[in-house]
C-alpha cells in the first residue's frame, strides 16, 4: 500500500515537472513573438533630486513591460527567459532606442536635461561593438550622451570578462554615465567600485523598505551612502514609499530618490504630467512650439 502511494506521488511529481516544462516552453514561444507583435512597452519612473525642501525630477528609469493579451507581465518573470535565449540583445536594443527617442522628445517638450536610465543585461555588454551601437542610437535619436545612464548590476561585473571593462570605459569616454543597480544585494566586492568606471550607486530597495525602523538596515544604508559620497558618486535610493524614509535619507545626505512615494512606473503618456509637476523649473510647452521643435 505504501508502495502504491509512493508511485502515485512520483507520478504526480513528474506531471508537475512536465507541466512546468510546458509552461516554460509556452512562455519562450510567446516571448519570441513579442517584439514583432509590438507587445513590449516601456514604463517610466521618475528619479527625483531632493534638496532644501525642494524636489526636482532629474531623470526617469525605463522599465520594460510585456502585454500578454490584457495581462501586464513583470520583467522579473520574462527578462531571465530572454537572457537565456539571447533575445535580450535584440529586445535590449529596442529598449535603448525607444527610451532615447522618448526622452529626447520630452527634452523638446520642455523637460530639458532630463536623464534617461536604461537597464542592461550582461549579454548586451558582451556583444561586440555594443558601445558603437549605443553611439549610433544616440546619433539617430539626437539624445545627448550626457543624458544617458546605463544601469548594470554587480553580477555583471562579477563575471569579470575583460571586455566588460573595455566596453564600460568606451561608454564612459562618450560621456555616458554608468550606475551600479541594486547595490548590496549581489556578491558585492568593494573592489568593483574602483576597478570599473562607475558614476552612480543605487541603494537596493530591500535596505530602504524597513530602513526607518530597523537599526541594522539603517546602518547599512548609511554606510552605502557614505561610501558613494566618499567616492564622489551620486547615490540614488530605490523603493521610497513613505515620508519617513524620505526624511531618513535626506538626513543621511542621500539626495536622489526613486519610489512609489513620488510615482509608480507608468506609461509615457501617463508619466508626462507627473514629470511636469515634479519639475518646478520647467514651463509647459506653448501651443505650436511642438511643431516648431
Ligand atoms: P530595477 O532596475 O532595480 O528596477 C526597480 C524596480 O523596483 C522596478 O521593478 C520598479 O517598479 C520597482 N520599484 C520602484 N519603486 C518602488 C517602490 O517604492 N517599492 C517597491 N516595492 N518597488 C519599487 P520592475 O519594473 O518590476 O523591474 C524589475 C527589474 O527588471 C528591474 O529592477 C530590472 O533589473 C529589470 N528590468 C526592467 N526593465 C529592464 C530592461 O529593459 N532590461 C533589462 N535588462 N532589465 C530590465
Ligand atoms: Mg534599474
Ligand atoms: Mg534596482
Ligand atoms: Mg532589480
Automatic annotation (TrEMBL):
Compartments where located: Cell inner membrane
Highest taxon of the lineage: Bacteria
Coiled coil: 10-37
Residue ranges of every copy of the EAL domain listed in the record: 24-279
Name of this protein: Diguanylate cyclase DosC
Amino acid at each position: 500500500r505504501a508502495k502504491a502511494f509512493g508511485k502515485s506521488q512520483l507520478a504526480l511529481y513528474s506531471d508537475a515537472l512536465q507541466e512546468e516544462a510546458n509552461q516554460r516552453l509556452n512562455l519562450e514561444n510567446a516571448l519570441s513573438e513579442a517584439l514583432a507583435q509590438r507587445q513590449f512597452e516601456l514604463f517610466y519612473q521618475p528619479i527625483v533630486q531632493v534638496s532644501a525642501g525642494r524636489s526636482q525630477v532629474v531623470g526617469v528609469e525605463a522599465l520594460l513591460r510585456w502585454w500578454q493579451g490584457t495581462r501586464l507581465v513583470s520583467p522579473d518573470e520574462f527578462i531571465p527567459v530572454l537572457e537565456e535565449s539571447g533575445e535580450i540583445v535584440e529586445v535590449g536594443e529596442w529598449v535603448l532606442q525607444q527610451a532615447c527617442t522618448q526622452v529626447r522628445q520630452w527634452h523638446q517638450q520642455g523637460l530639458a536635461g532630463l536623464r534617461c536610465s536604461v537597464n542592461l543585461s550582461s549579454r548586451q555588454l558582451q556583444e561586440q561593438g555594443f558601445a558603437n551601437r549605443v553611439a549610433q542610437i544616440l546619433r539617430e535619436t539626437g539624445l545627448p550622451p550626457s543624458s544617458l545612464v546605463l544601469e548594470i548590476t554587480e553580477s555583471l561585473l562579477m563575471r569579470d570578462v575583460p571586455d566588460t571593462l573595455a566596453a564600460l570605459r568606451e561608454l564612459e569616454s562618450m560621456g555616458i554615465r554608468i550606475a551600479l543597480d541594486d547595490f548590496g544585494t549581489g556578491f558585492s566586492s568593494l573592489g568593483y567600485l574602483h576597478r570599473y568606471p562607475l558614476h552612480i550607486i543605487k541603494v537596493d530597495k530591500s535596505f530602504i523598505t524597513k530602513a526607518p525602523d530597523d537599526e541594522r538596515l539603517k546602518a547599512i544604508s548609511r554606510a552605502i551612502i557614505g561610501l558613494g559620497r566618499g567616492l564622489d558618486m551620486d547615490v540614488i535610493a530605490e523603493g521610497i514609499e513613505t515620508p519617513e524614509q524620505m526624511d531618513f535619507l535626506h538626513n543621511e545626505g542621500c539626495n536622489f530618490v526613486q519610489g512609489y512615494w513620488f510615482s509608480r512606473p507608468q506609461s509615457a503618456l501617463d508619466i508626462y504630467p507627473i514629470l511636469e509637476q515634479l519639475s518646478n523649473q520647467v514651463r509647459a510647452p506653448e501651443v505650436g512650439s511642438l511643431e516648431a521643435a
